[in-house]
Amino acid sequence: MYTDPRGEAYRQVIDLAVRNSERFVLGEKGRFPADGGWRRYNPILEALEPYLVETIKLPGSNREEIRQMMETYSSAFYTEGTYYIYACCEESGAVLKQAANRLSDWVYPDLPEDLCFLREGGGDYLYSVVHEDTYGMDITEEEAVVLMERITGLFLELEAHRDLDCLLEDAIKHQTDRLYVSGHRLTELPERIRELTELRDLEIFEQDLYQLPEGVFELSKLERLRIMTADLEGLPASIGKLKNLRELSISCGSSDRPAPGWRPKPKEEIGLDRIPPEIGELKQLEQLTIQYSSIQELPAELEKLKNLRSLDLGSSMIKHKPDFLFRMHKLESIHVAQQAYWSEETGDEME
């Protein structure tokens, strides 16, 4: 799954998993309190008690047992903890639908973790590892196409999504809140990106993408924007429109398909040579990363970012840290590096 289904799509997926699975599992990982006395979700465990089939405790000292459990039963058994296995039926499914609005809700401390549905004889039908933002179903491509037609909001990865138009069409149809774009050899990003009005997380890794269309800056719900490219011509003033942005990361000198001997252009020639003063309008911004740029100075408007905790300007052309950075008391990490060289052994940039 590109993202976990929410709302009505989540409820339909739970119904589907209940029909196609024998059991489901919820876990209390190793960090949970031993007596469970203050967990918030006790009422959920009590509601599921009539359907409890088995309780499994995995000690962290036995990694081989954990590995075997993952291979035999489910990817849910990836660490030590207590695991509750329940029978699938309409009534237990109703509890799951009432307790959460999406798969990512199944996380400590509000709920037990990583809801997974098990096939008869072992293996996952539906799996989730919330802390890794990993969700999926063990189904064929043909089954995935049918389900996506039937359940709006269930956005599954398909081979057909190697075609960017197909990927965007499905992303828009299912109003995904997360999207990763890479390997399409893009020189420009389609303006249709503005139709992804629910998008909160956008990551693009395309080495020939030199400009961002205005449509990106109309994604008002965007919280995380990551761009990796060989060269970005600049960051427009429109960046100030992304009022909900919490993380902005730009890495120039990057290649998604490096040929033997490939190297980035000298950073003096990188088009990204300034941070627009409108950056100061991003009041929610917590992390700002710009790697390998020709930026020589920082705008004073950065000081307006009262929530900024991390500033990383590695391999820039900035010679001195401006004094205002040291007045930004929420900043926990400041990395402003000018010099860089390339490892002849690995071809990687080093500082």
From TrEMBL:
Presence of the UniProt keyword Repeat in the record: yes
Disease resistance R13L4/SHOC-2-like LRR domain location: 181-255
GO cellular component: cytoplasm
Keywords, ordered alphabetically: Leucine-rich repeat, Repeat
UniProt-listed InterPro entries: LRR_dom_sf, LRR_domain-containing, LRR_R13L4/SHOC2-like
TM segment ranges: none
Keyword set includes Repeat: yes
Name of the protein described by the UniProt record: Leucine-rich repeat domain-containing protein
Organism ancestry: Bacteria, Bacillati, Bacillota, Bacilli, Bacillales
